Amino acid sequence: MSPAVEAQAQEAMEAEQKQKQQQNQLQHQPCYMEKGVMLEPFVHQVGGHSCVLRFGEQTICKPLIPREHQFYKSLPAAMRKFTPQYRGVVSVSFEEDEEENLCLIAYPLCSDQPADVENKDSSADKDKSGHRVQDYMELERSKQAEVLRYRLEHSHSNAVPQLKHNPWSLQCHQQQLQRMKENAKHRNQYKFILLENLTCRHTVPCVLDLKMGTRQHGDDASEEKKAIHTRKCQQSTSASIGVRLGGMQVYHSDSGQLIFMNKYHGRKLNLAGFKEALFQFFHSGRRLRRELLSPVLSRLREMQAALESCESYRFYSSSLLIIYDGAQHRKHTRRRTDDGLSEDEDEEVEAEPKMDEGEDEEDEEEGEGACAFGFPNNPAPSSDSSRSGSSGISPPCSDLHSPVVDVRMIDFAHTTCKHYCEDSVVHEGKDSGYIFGLQNLITIISELEDHCAD
Questions:
Q1: Which pTM value belongs to this model?
Q2: Dihedral, CA atoms, 171, 173, 179, 181, nearest 10 degrees?
Q3: How many angstroms separate the CA atoms of 122 and 130, rounded?
Q4: CA-based Rg of the chain, rounded to a whole angstrom?
Q5: What is the DSSP string of 206-260?
Q6: Would you call 7 exposed, middle or buried from its count of C-beta atoms within 10 A (0-12, 13-18, 19+)?
Q7: What is the pLDDT of residue 49?
Q8: Given this model, what pLDDT does residue 245 score?
Q9: In sequence order, which residues have a C-beta less than 8 Å from that of residue 406 and are 6 or more positions away?
Q10: What is the enclosing helix (H) or strand (E) of 94?
Q11: Is 285 left (phi over 0), alpha (psi -120 to 50) or beta?
């Protein structure tokens, strides 16, 4: 074989190997094919009104709001570990597939398209009365079932339970499709931002969405919106403790069910009800997952310290996510039989975070399985600063080993600070309303931890 032919054969083999590598990569991450990336409902969205969509295994996307986009591009270094990683902007269009089903497709942003353009509906100038009737109907439908239970399905080939749908995420997805369908005659291109999928490291994510702060309206809100949001705060735990339930999903391994709570249920909770909801979130159905509490408290205290150093920032209407894995993992054991032989056994155990060395684990399951849902009857939390000292700070999100319990801030559509030159209102000092909510959340979870220790 001549050297030239040999070189061609070598090039062909290298090209084939490269093609195989690319195909393997496509199985694990989205790729912009000829028709773009089809966006799917993000089944672990438990709160908020903005539609969150699944872009890939490790990435989600949501409609671009300039203020939120600006925050992600310019957020302080101290805040990066407490927010999802920002991954860019895509252009999303409303299309029909081959079977005439409506779907959303993401494409790369063209170089001549400005990234920071607001997604304004061209129908905004239409008669608002019709939209108010539609919004009211949507509101009534969503309020019909505020707490739902879904039994997860187990496939024969995989013991891991599969979540096929989430009532809140499907509702947000349908509303997004409806809005884009109404505006299809006027426009068909929308900007979406790409963000880190905080649930991708978990098999069955348990997600708690907490609306933080004593104030929920931005500086640019109309008088009508100010009144609405102020009333919601006064009628919920937002005014009294600076935090309220915005949504929740938690897996109970005893029944194989996911329990969902939406924001309408969260608004009705008083302080005792809010404590009860937190207790349910950290409960597996068999026992209280007390080993989760210390990492969450460490993260919250670290976050509070970071926020106290953020001069002039206000995180109005933002949320706090707490996420952990509720899946059971099979533990392989070997036991001795009566005839002296050994045989293998598979035992289902709940995923647990790493404990500090020397921490006592003897009483972990004692008496907790039969415990009814009930938070210890302790005094209401105060606004005093949180307790000092904690063990086991969760590693940052950038670490190779993902934290078992994740605590992040999300939703910054109404965030403001002195660096936003276009804002007419400039605040001084720290966001006392948000920090007030953090302090009370720390106090409540600390009470739960102390109750477990007793």
A1: 0.73
A2: -120
A3: 15
A4: 25
A5: EEEEEEESS----TT--HHHHHHHHHHHHTSHHHHHSEEEEEEEEEETTTTEEEE
A6: exposed
A7: 79
A8: 97
A9: 198, 321, 322, 323, 324, 394, 397
A10: strand 86-96
A11: left
Question: What's the CA gap between 240 and 233, in Å, rounded?
Answer: 9
Query: Pick from 224, 250, 194: which is nearest to 44 by CA?
Result: 250
In contact, 44 and 205? CB cutoff 8 Å: yes
CA distance 240 to 227: 17
Instruction: Work out the angle at residue 258's Cα, subtended by the Cα atoms of residues 255 and 263, and round it to the nearest 5 degrees.
Output: 140
Residues 349, 364: contact at Cβ < 8 Å?
Answer: no
Beta carbons within 8 Å of 144's beta carbon, 6+ residues apart: none
Q: For position 151, what pLDDT does the model report?
A: 75
Contacts of 57 by beta carbon, 8 Å cutoff, 6+ apart: 28, 29, 197, 200
| Model confidence band, residue 174 (pLDDT cutoffs 50, 70, 90) | confident
Residue in the structure block whose two tokens are 């159905």? 285
Question: Which residue, among 92, 89, 85, has the nearest Cα to 38 in the 3D structure?
Answer: 92
Closest CA to 258 of 368, 167, 347: 167
- Report helix, strand or coil for 148: strand
The two tokens of residue 209 are: 């969405």
- Structure tokens belonging to residue 372: 């009814």
Under DSSP, the state recorded for 175 is H
Q: What is the pLDDT of residues 287-311, one digit of tens each?
A: 999 999 999 999 999 999 999 999 9
pLDDT > 90? residue 342: no
Q: Which of 137-151, 212-226, 321-335, 371-385 has the highest mean pLDDT?
A: 212-226
Q: ∠ at Cα 324 (321, 327), nearest 5°?
A: 145
